[in-house]
Amino acid sequence: MTTAIKVENVSKTYTRDKMSVPVLNNVSIEIPEGEFVALMGPSGSGKTTLLNLIAGIDRPTGGRVSVQGEDIGTMNESSLAKWRSRNIGFIFQFYNLIPVLTAYENVELPLMLTPLSKAQRKQQVETSLAIVGLADRMKHTPNQLSGGQQQRVAIARAIATDPNIIVADEPTGDLDKKSALEIMTLLERLNKEFGKTIIMVTHDPSAAEHAHIVRHLDKGDLLPEGA
Amino acid sequence: MKIPFYYILRNFFARKLTASITIVGVALVVFVFAAVLMMAYGVEKALISTGSDENAIITRKGSNNEISSIIDLQTANELSTLKGIAKDAQGKVVVSYEVATVINLDKKSGGMSNVSVRGVSPQVFVLRPGVKLAQGTWFRSGSREIVVGKQTNARFQGAALGDKVKFGGDFWTIVGIMDANGSAFDSEMWVDVEQLRGAYKRDAYSSMTFKFTSKDDLETMKSKISGDPRLNQMEVEIERSFFEKQSEALAMFLRVLGLVVTIIFSVGAMIGAMITMYTSVANRTVEIGTLRALGFRRGAVLFAFLFESLMLSLVGGVSGLILASGLTFFSISTMNFSSFSELAFSFAMSPSIIITSLLFAILMGFVGGVLPSWRASRMKIVDSLRGA
Ligand SMILES: Nc1ncnc2c1ncn2[C@@H]1O[C@H](COP(=O)(O)OP(=O)(O)OP(=O)(O)O)[C@@H](O)[C@H]1O
Ligand SMILES: [Mg+2]
Is A52 close to B382, i.e. CB distance below 8 A? Predict the structure, then answer.
């Protein structure tokens, strides 16, 4: 099995008001392609930070992050932006849909960064929305949708460009049990059926059950597997 | 631009209240800005239309207005024999000998102001066919009668048909009202030049206006005048450019005054636009982070916000111009320093005023929007996503 993500001795320190706050200490983890990993741990332990480093929206203070064999630390900002648009699908706790855009337009947004034609984009959007079961809600804006539905639109947006890796930061954190289960079922399906590598941060043990591997962070340290 | 245009457009419409306030602010500034330019242009238009391209005016050298110009009778006689002055069917030269003076009258709006009184010769109607009688009759030569311009009639007390006006030691009766088609003559009073000269006991005219036969003849005449020691105190100029020059000082004064006022106002509008855009950025911090995470570049974010600001100001600019164009239905009056008398004119719009005003509006949007947009595009993605 090939390695999708390789995190080597990564540390991250935030500087706030001249004070250095160590957030990650020498974290190393390898995630094989097609895996479904859950990251757990207390609040402030560095889960989101680690996820952001893997997704290429933040840079480590030390160490190396390679994704699909590429050291993303060597890329400049604009190539990194392009790289994200092709390789990473983002799912956020509060969905982060654009309120003024319809479900269709939200899903189409990342496709605007590809050379696809309008017709090709349409096909991708419709396929993605069909996968999340919202083909009939294309014209709705986020405020006309329930939380669970909004998160499904966000998932459709995350898969619209067909990236290999999906990062999800507490995707069920804002949802009721029933919607949370729907979302987790959907993520599981993306992993099994479409072979997406998924890294998910969660506080919810029942959500973590859907992952194959569960890793724990504590005060910036990644605890050994099975701990 | 990768961020779709409808994204910018919808955000623009999503913030109705703050956007409208900004638009109103920009609109008011552009309104004032355009109004001032329209005023200056109106003055120019009124004075330029006063002079004709087919007439020339002779004044004393160095007197840049008619009031301070003096042409004695003998010189005037001499000048009227020069080649280059057109003749009418009866073989008479088409010349109006004129005397310009100023009297003081009460304004209907309160206070007093100066009115130009112009003594003219009978040939004036051939020279200035644009001046038409609107009411009453023309003054008869040899009598102390006045025809008033329609603006003088409208703005001054005792300037109605049948009223008597005292100047030059006598009473003059208003027998007619003339319509000079928006030119400065509308703000004057015309009388028989010989009567005016007599009343003031003057042995001289102020100026001579004549129809010239051709441009070439006019040039010949000019060199003849400057070569003749008896005439070389005099200066010939095309009538239109003579009045155009008179408009320059006043138009410039209005423009400078107006620009100072609008620049002060525009600071307020720019701060308004800036607050609106800062609010817009602050309210959409997470959204900006999301867009950036998805792969949109800083430049695209900068552009989207800047464009939104430019749209605000452009809508404001267009509204301000629409308001200002309503001013063309109004006429106002001001003191014209060149003639020391009141000049009435209408606000006038021109393509260049439209373009200048819109550019000014866009500039306000740019200045107001550039800092907030810059801030939006400079934020670190993780910070924006945290909503910091
Ligand atoms: N952009 C940042 N600037 C400064 N400090 C930050 C930043 N992001 C995170 N931190 C700090 O780093 C620490 C870890 O944050 P992180 O968001 O990774 O935790 P987390 O495990 O995701 O917590 P939670 O479960 O509450 O989301 C916290 O103390 C946080 O205050
Ligand atoms: Mg977190």
Answer: yes
